[in-house]
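Hi V.,

You were right to ask for the full record rather than a summary. Here it is.
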Amino acid sequence: MNYPTELICGVDEVGRGCLAGPMVAVAALFKGWETGVPGVDDSKKLTPNKRDKLFPMILWSPFLIDFGVGQVEVEEINQYGITWANDMSFSRAIDSLPIRPNFIIVDGVKGVSGWDRTNQLVETKADGKYPVVGAASILAKVIRDRHMEELHDRFPQYKWEKNKGYGSQDHTDALRAHGHCSHHRLQFLRKIIPLQTGWSF
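Predicted structure:
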């Protein structure tokens, strides 16, 4: 199959600030700078229903070539830290693409390791400025949210089907009542519970 010369990849992550669950990044590779999907925006600005509707529209867009997912597990975050996890999630997402992009647009403040700065654009809030990054943001958000909903079935006390692992009141209340589990990021819990009295299951 012949692809156009300009292959633009939007890259974004979800879950950096969560207390529990993995970090998930998506690299969405498009033919050019547009997605062909109306309504694409920063996933945080969209309702869950809107994200769920846009998710299959993005996947079926004639402009989308492929997308890659980079997931960093809690065990890795606990061992290496959140900054390392952020960089690794981006790298894993791009490396999982079957085709190398010509140019990448990254939502954040730091470029992707191993990529020439002349071949990438790094901007804060890029997911609200560039549709290809907004698409990556939506894909990553839906993928991670569904994962947390599956984990909720095993750990219903933390209400992950609602808070998706973020530090909501119901989540922090559950941590104080039940302690932490193996899906929690330990360094994020120090101001909430004394880890020596918490328990893992």
